[in-house]
């Protein structure tokens, strides 16, 4: 099996990092330092090498280093099984992000065909008890990891739905205004739904085939909508009067929810303890990575922010064993080097410190030859 790894990462004027240069090999990357030192900023930079808004979902302006506000740039060398790509992401003066792949301008969605990146961050700990929007986002990140075209379908659907909702709010009743928009929504919406179903099937298979220290989660997609483009288009047309009254579109994949159950206990994930909910999330991320490795021949890059802090020593060791067994380059953060002791020489280590608002990265272990 090949691997997908970053061998070089440069951050320029990105958040607390004025300049950081990191060279890596294919092993996991253990990043330690005090809270607020700038560890998560490194993970966020890596997340921006994949499609979407990154693990914090921040605007380009929010990522720029203060007080200079000159703009920022991230450069990475991504080693895929058969080719190395130079990725550049930058923003000037708070403007929208721009992307260059191997020296050529590219749409952000093109990153999905090269960089498969999964992450687990503390903000996701509330996944099972927050609103459905967060679970849809989690599901769509999983789906995107399998199907890069999922991003284009989502963008097309959202754009058409915004235009349809504008007509609804303006109380436009003439059917001809809606027909083309609903056709576009139906085509994209059916593709979104099919992609989500594919991702959940792949995750279920990966969980069922693995012996793991983490509990299995049974996932169900709850979505009250026709699954074929033609049926969805007809449903949107039939629902116009109800949508006019509401001022928004009331059926479609944007109304879906993800329902999770702790399989061994048959308990809804939302009713599990905080520790069990975290373990379920870890299980899903690992299953997603295993499924991608089986489907694509290479595991994704993993970003695990403070993940070990909420796991006991046995589960920490089990997590590290699974990551190494998978052959994934996992970028992990923790407050001290002792959190990664169980990794031994299977990982490379970075120490991050901060002084007067500027982060410094020190490579404790040089990359292997």
Model description:
By secondary structure, the protein is of the alpha/beta class. The chain folds into two domains: 1-116 and 298-369, P-loop containing nucleotide triphosphate hydrolases (Rossmann fold, 3-Layer(aba) Sandwich); 130-297, Up-down Bundle (Glutathione S-transferase Yfyf (Class Pi), Chain A, domain 2), CATH 1.20.1050. It contains eight helices and 15 strands. It has helices at 39-47, 132-146, 150-169, 176-208, 229-238, 240-246, 274-296, 313-326, and strands at 5-14, 17-23, 29-32, 72-79, 84-91, 98-101, 104-105, 117-120, 217-222, 257-262, 267-268, 301-304, 330-334, 348-355, 358-363. Strands 2-1-4-5-6-7 form a six-stranded antiparallel sheet, covered by helices on one side. The protein has a six-stranded mixed sheet with strand order 8-12-13-3-14-15, with helices on both faces. α4 packs across α5 and α7 (274-296) runs parallel beside α8 (313-326). The protein is globular, with a radius of gyration of 22 Å. The model has no long low-confidence stretch (mean pLDDT 93).
């Amino acid at each position: 099996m090949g691997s997908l790894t970053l061998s070089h990462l440069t951050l320029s004027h990105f958040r607390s990092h004025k300049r950081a240069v990191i060279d890596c090999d294919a092993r996991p990357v253990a990043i330690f330092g005090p809270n607020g030192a700038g560890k998560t900023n490194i993970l966020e930079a890596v997340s921006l090498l994949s499609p979407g808004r990154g693990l914090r979902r921040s605007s380009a302006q929010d990522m720029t280093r203060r007080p200079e506000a000159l703009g920022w740039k991230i450069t990475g060398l991504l080693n895929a099984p058969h080719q190395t790509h130079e990725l550049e992401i930058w923003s000037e003066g708070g403007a929208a992000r721009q992307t260059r792949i191997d020296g050529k301008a590219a749409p952000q969605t093109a990153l999905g065909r090269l960089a498969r990146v999964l992450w687990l961050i503390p903000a996701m700990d509330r996944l099972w008890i927050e609103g459905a929007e967060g679970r849809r986002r989690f599901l769509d990140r999983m789906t995107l990891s399998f199907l890069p075209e999922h991003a284009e379908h989502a963008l097309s659907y959202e754009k058409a739905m915004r235009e349809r909702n504008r007509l609804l709010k303006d109380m436009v009743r003439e059917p001809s205004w809606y027909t083309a928009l609903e056709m576009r929504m139906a085509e994209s919406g059916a593709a979104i739904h099919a992609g989500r179903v594919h991702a959940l099937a792949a995750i279920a298979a990966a969980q069922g085939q693995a012996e793991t220290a983490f509990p299995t989660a049974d996932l169900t997609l709850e979505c009250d909508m026709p699954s074929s483009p033609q049926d969805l288009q007809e449903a949107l047309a039939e629902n116009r009067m109800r949508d006019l009254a509401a001022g928004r579109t009331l059926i479609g994949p944007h109304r879906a929810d993800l329902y999770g159950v702790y399989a061994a206990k048959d308990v809804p994930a939302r009713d599990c303890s905080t520790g069990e909910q975290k373990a379920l999330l870890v299980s899903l991320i690992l299953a997603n990575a295993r499924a991608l490795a089986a489907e694509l021949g290479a595991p994704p890059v993993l970003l695990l922010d403070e993940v070990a802090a909420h796991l006991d020593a046995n589960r920490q060791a089990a997590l590290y064993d699974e990551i190494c067994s998978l052959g994934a380059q996992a970028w992990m953060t923790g407050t001290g080097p002792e959190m990664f002791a169980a990794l031994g020489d299977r990982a490379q280590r970075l120490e991050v410190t901060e002084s007067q608002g500027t982060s410094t990265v020190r490579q404790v272990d040089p990359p292997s030859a």
